[in-house]
Write a structure and sequence with these properties.
With 278 residues, the chain is an alpha/beta fold. The chain has 7 helices and 15 strands. The strands form 3 sheets. It has an 8-stranded mixed sheet, sandwiched between helices.
Length: 278
């Protein structure tokens, strides 16, 4: 009981007062990869990450060794690291997160497992045009949040003191990683309800390279916003599926119409495949 009250107090404090939280390096013994290290953020509002073989094998269904994969909205790297293990040391996994606080943990995770992964982290938002934005959170410890053109946002009342940079993904990749573009096979997006705007901004890239795309249908988005996300993906020539989790044995259900996305009130993950090859 004492432990419960201590943890509850830590969470309340993290929501109301800013402080820096360090990370603990944990080891995970995977059947195929061997020992994998991951820096778990000690922020009490963030659940401990478990790196497991089933998640890596989930990504291996879509990412082969030597491919390029992109993680937009990485947080600490809980999806970035398994993606990078699938792409391998000869591949490239690029992680974007505009949260300057959590980015420090992502950088640590990008520096680990160098014999098995190649991760390039960037503290940028992916936006339609290059610009500067406020990073806004509902929590003082900035464990979540998103970008906004104004400091007043539905994302919350806590505003990071320095603005963050937004980049157009296609322009950024063409400038910084042009030789990797033909190897682009997978994009994951988790942007606190901003997913549909990112999909719109990267549609030319999606149409050209036809990667598998994972997005979120965010619980706080309105019905019209959720259907707009469906339309933005569908217009690129994709089939859209709900899937139950990042697990190699996950179940998938196709969304046949834009109204199908309204059946979930909670945040759910969607995976989309080019129609002509699925």
């Amino acid at each position: 009981m004492i432990r419960y009250f201590k943890e509850s107090f830590r969470r309340k404090r993290a929501r109301r007062l800013f402080r820096e939280y360090s990370a603990t390096i944990d080891n995970y013994d995977l059947e195929k990869e061997g020992t994998i290290q991951f820096a778990n953020w000690e922020n009490p509002l963030i659940a401990r990450v478990d790196i497991n073989q089933s998640a890596v094998d989930f990504y291996r269904r879509y990412i082969s060794e030597g491919d390029m994969a992109i993680d937009i909205g990485t947080n600490t790297g809980d999806t970035t690291v398994p993606m990078a293990l699938a792409a391998g040391r000869r591949g490239l996994t690029i992680g974007f997160d505009p949260n300057p606080v959590v980015f420090k943990i992502l950088k640590i995770n990008s520096s680990l497992n160098k014999d098995k992964t190649c991760i390039e982290p960037y503290c940028y938002a992916v936006t339609a045009h290059e610009d500067e934005f406020y990073f806004v959170s509902s929590e003082a410890s900035f464990s979540n949040g998103g970008v906004s053109k104004t400091p007043k946002s539905r994302l919350g009342r806590f505003v990071y003191p320095q603005k963050v940079r937004g980049v157009n993904l296609e322009e950024f990749l063409s400038k910084n990683h042009p030789t990797w573009l033909p190897k682009l096979c997978f994009i994951k997006i988790d942007a606190e309800g901003y997913d549909k705007e990112i999909i719109k901004s990267i549609s030319p890239l999606i149409v050209k390279h036809k990667p598998v795309v994972i997005t979120e249908s965010y619980k706080h988005s309105s019905g019209s916003e959720k259907m707009e996300l469906f339309d933005a993906i569908k217009k690129n020539g994709y089939k859209i599926f709900y899937f139950s989790g990042f697990d190699v044995n996950t179940t998938m259900t196709e969304l046949k119409s834009r109204e199908d996305i309204l059946q979930w009130k909670k945040t759910v993950n969607l995976i989309s495949f080019p129609e002509q090859i699925h």
